[in-house]
Design goal:
This protein has 414 residues and is an alpha/beta fold. The protein has 13 helices and 15 strands. A six-stranded mixed beta sheet has the order 8-9-11-12-13-10. Strands 1-4-3-2-14 form a five-stranded mixed beta sheet, with helices on both faces. Strands 5-7 form a two-stranded antiparallel sheet.
Length: 414
């Protein structure tokens, strides 16, 4: 006879939820749009129970759901809520709902803390501020802007086109472009070589990551730090709120801040930087920096600062910032968030969860008689917190490997 119950989650799930609420109370979240808390409470089957383990991820994708199922995790803590709005149905036709249904079938629950982590003291906002105000062990770089090649006019066959093109086509070799019929130029076959998309280094490379980050001493540059949008009334969580404004005691070269950010978030191969058109990167110094994880448009829109540092801004938001003389650094949305799971949340949750699991085990035992399999579950003292190896931002960086350009396609006719 099965002891499968439909009215109780696993006791370990209970311990995970209470641990997350201790670290990042849901009262800190921005409830005007956010959906935080226990989003999927899977029934507990003690005969077919999961490991006492948690999988941390930014996004709960199909790949992450597969990872959770394959590794027998009990709870997925997904920073971004997989459910944002009310659902009228749950079907396999929707990819996100499909992941939820599969996880529920396996007895895996899902918890989302989202903006509670952003707002918490020592949370995402402070982690990004720590990176920006860190110092490197070696001399910080004196970056120089690469010189742009001078544009030269190209020559076209006067019998084909009487107008001259003021700038050479960068996708056509010079010796091919000069006396090649227009029809053939339109059918050029590009043979440039590009890398596969690259992503910040956070996937199962803890030793490399620790070595890279050990070069950066967080929060060591003299500065003042304030909360942009304070959240009050949550006991034990003073100085909470959305966004951080950093004011450096001494102006910092923008090139140094770029290098600190790169080291702190996993050394991506590149990321967008916007500066006023009249300036060069190496000439800019930053006294004030406004910081927001993820999408910073709303949090940073009314802030006056020399630098906006966030995951993403819209085209018009970035343009407005540079027009008023500010600089912008973005990393792609979730690349401002993922490193926090590795660097901070994993260790913090592991510590609190060990204490909470001991407390919950005692409570459940004291509640009385349980069905078959419960005793074994409650005797398991183990606790494991892991970070997903398959979670990544949708966007990667593709790098040009070769300047070689192809010849006209064989047999091209006018």
């Amino acid at each position: 006879m099965s002891t499968y119950t439909t009215d109780k989650a696993s006791p370990f799930t209970r311990a995970v939820v209470s641990s997350m609420r201790k670290l990042y109370p849901e009262a800190l979240a921005d409830k005007s749009f956010d959906n935080t808390g226990l989003l999927l409470e899977a029934p507990f089957d003690p005969i077919r129970r999961q490991m006492n383990s948690v999988l941390l991820t930014v996004d709960l994708t199909k790949a992450v759901a597969d990872e959770a199922i394959e590794n027998n995790h009990c709870v997925v803590v997904a920073y971004h809520p997989i459910i944002f709005r009310g659902l009228k149905s749950l079907t396999l036709a929707d990819s996100q709902q499909q992941s939820l249904l599969r996880l529920a079938l396996e007895g895996i629950s899902v918890y989302s803390p989202h903006t509670a982590v952003d707002a918490a003291p020592g949370g995402l906002g402070d982690w990004l501020a720590d990176i920006l105000t860190g110092t490197l062990s070696e001399p910080e770089p004196a970056t120089r802007t690469a010189q742009q090649p001078e544009a030269t006019a190209s020559v076209t066959d006067s019998s084909d086109d009487q107008t001259s093109n003021p700038v050479e086509d960068p996708f056509v070799e010079k010796d091919v472009q000069k006396n090649t019929p227009k029809q053939e130029l339109q059918r050029m076959s590009l043979a440039r070589s590009y890398s596969r998309p690259t992503y910040p280094n956070h996937k199962g490379k803890e030793k490399e990551q620790e070595k890279e980050q050990s070069d950066l001493t967080p929060s060591s540059a003299s500065h003042k730090r304030t909360v942009i949008h304070p959240v009050t009334g949550v006991e034990g969580f003073s100085n909470a709120g959305m966004g951080r404004l950093v004011t450096f005691t001494h102006p910092q070269p923008l090139t140094h801040l770029i290098e600190r950010i790169a080291r702190g978030v996993g050394s991506p191969k590149g990321f967008p930087v916007a500066i006023p058109q009249s300036r060069q990167v190496e000439d800019i110094h930053i006294t004030t920096a406004a910081i927001c994880a993820g999408s910073g448009g709303d949090v940073l829109k009314a802030v006056t600062a020399d630098l906006l540092f966030t995951g993403e801004l819209s085209h018009h938001e970035a343009l407005a910032a540079t027009e008023r003389g500010a600089s912008v650094i973005t990393l792609f949305h979730s690349n401002t968030e993922r490193g926090f799971l590795h660097s901070v949340m994993k260790e913090k949750l592991s510590k609190v969860l060990r204490e909470e699991w001991e407390r919950v085990r005692t409570e459940v035992k004291d509640e009385g008689v349980h069905g078959e399999g419960w005793e074994e579950a409650l005797e398991d003292e183990g606790v494991l917190v892991e970070v997903s190896e398959r979670d990544r931002d949708p966007f990667g960086i593709v790098i040009l490997q070769s300047e070689q350009v192809g010849r006209p396609i064989t047999g091209a006719k006018g």
